[in-house]
Specification:
This protein is of the alpha/beta class. It has 8 helices and 7 strands. The chain binds NADPH dihydro-nicotinamide-adenine-dinucleotide phosphate (NDP). The site of NADPH dihydro-nicotinamide-adenine-dinucleotide phosphate has 31 residues, from α1, β2, α4 and α6.
């Protein structure tokens, strides 16, 4: 039920953090994974780490905010692998400022990286998934898809948008046997949140106090949901937004 042998999975932001852990999970279930990022050296190191574990991985350098770059990315994946079955829209960034201090450039950077990228990659993935007769889109949201934070106006807008975008994909593509779901991680210990803990006073303590599990998540905590949503086990599940948060969202 969870076997992904013969499947090709593209993971944006797959060269580190949550993306790499999800890619490792997909590869352990048999998929060939393609890691996407702008930093070619970081991607090459991640590919080597996966290959050293006997997993099937390669990387494509791409900027997922750029329409031409995304088109070239999908073309390269099809050329190398012949098909695309699973897309994880995980690339993300944050600029932490209150709304009144956020420039339009800051806003656009965050929206382009977190939301427009998911649109561009999903749109480009539709034809190959339809041709394959099945597809899985997994979009990465956040607790900020649900809750507000004074220092995250653009990030929150992008992550709220991801959930609604996922529902649109799910309704539009159900007839093509393509399922689209969102994952909403709680506080996960990565480069992104290490920076946040430096920048936002008291964040570490607030996350720990509010998370019933009593800890930050680690990237491997996201591997299981990626495999589930990429596999036939979830074929009748579409348009959902599933928290992976140690209970943060229900406490
Ligand atoms: P990281 O900063 O570790 O990873 C971000 C990834 O995105 C990197 O691999 C980076 O690769 C890639 N990326 C950024 N911009 C672009 C771009 N323009 N084109 C291609 N790739 C890009 O962050 P996390 O692993 O923490 O975050 C991954 C996702 O999870 C994000 O969407 C984030 O919002 C979300 N999330 C994280 C949480 C957490 O607690 N960590 C909580 C909730 C959600 P490169 O630099 O090579 O381009």
């Amino acid at each position: 039920m969870f076997d992904l042998s013969g499947k090709t999975a593209l993971v944006t932001g797959g060269n580190g953090g949550i993306g790499l852990a999800m890619a490792r999970g997909l590869a352990r279930s048999g998929a060939s994974v393609v890691l996407v990022g702008r930093d070619a050296a970081k991607s090459a190191a991640a590919v080597e780490a996966l290959k050293a574990q006997g997993l099937k991985a390669d990387a494509v350098e791409a900027d997922v905010t750029d329409e031409g770059s995304v088109q070239r990315l999908i073309a390269q994946v099809l050329e190398r692998h012949g098909a695309l079955h699973i897309l994880v829209n995980n690339a993300g960034t944050n600029i932490r400022k209150p709304p009144q201090d956020l420039s339009l450039e800051d806003w656009n950077t965050v929206l382009d990286t977190n939301l427009t990228s998911a649109f561009l990659c999903s749109r480009a993935a539709h034809a190959p998934m339809k041709a394959a007769g099945a597809g899985k889109v997994i979009n990465i949201g956040s607790m900020m898809s649900i809750f507000g934070a004074p220092y995250a106006p653009a990030y929150g807008a992008s992550k709220g948008g991801i959930v609604q975008f996922t529902r649109s994909l799910a309704t539009a593509w159900a007839a093509d046997n393509i399922q689209a779901n969102a994952v909403l991680p709680g506080g996960i210990d990565t480069e992104l949140t290490r920076k946040a803990r430096d920048q936002v006073q008291g964040l570490n303590e607030r996350v720990l106090a509010r998370t019933p599990a009593g800890r930050w998540g680690v990237p491997p905590d996201l591997a299981g949901i990626a495999v589930f949503l990429a596999s036939s086990a979830s074929d009748f599940i579409t348009g959902t937004a599933i928290p992976v948060d140690g209970g943060y969202s229900i406490a």
